Amino acid sequence: TTTTTTTTTTTTTADGVCENEQAALVCGDSGVSGTLAALPSRPLEGKCGGVALGTGGKAWFAFAATLTGTVTVSACGSNFDTVLYLLEDTACRTINGVLQNCQTANDDSSSACGPGALQSSLTFPVTTGEQWSILLAGFDGATGSYSLSVTCVADTTTTTTTTASTTSSSTTTTTTTTPTTTTTTT
Q1: What is the DSSP letter of 141?
Q2: pTM of the complete model
Q3: pLDDT digit string, tens, across residues 123-133
Q4: Which of 60, 83, 108, 185 is the most buried (most CB within 10 A)?
Q5: Contact yes or no for 79/144 (Cβ under 8 A)
Q6: Burial class (CB in 10 A: 0-12, 13-18, 19+), 174
């Protein structure tokens, strides 16, 4: 178990939306924590993965896949209503407040965080070398202390080896000759 405390670095893109960039997430992280406060930026617009983009605080995290398999990023330990968004590549992608390259999102993961939970969890397939951005946001303006964990499971490859065997058979033929007796009578 790895516990990581992040240091906040604020960055801003040309349209002022990508703020509060955090340290990169890695497989095995648990207890990645910080405070999500309301930011003075323009809210994100539209939807991603069927989840509306909100007006709450935001924190951006990069993730580089070091395996081929499945990754789960969980905000279950957070003390506020969270939303997680998964974006292709590690660039903070917004154009005029619209999230770009968003692949999926999760709001309220009761299956991962418990019945009635308001925290989020995302599970997604990865291939070694892929780059992702994870956006943690507060639902409907929510802010508070967050806690993230990252679980990675490598694909298992089953190799079936078939051994072919060749059976030789030999046939032996035995020929028995019965001596012929010739009797001559004179």
Answers
A1: G
A2: 0.70
A3: 999 999 999 98
A4: 83
A5: yes
A6: exposed
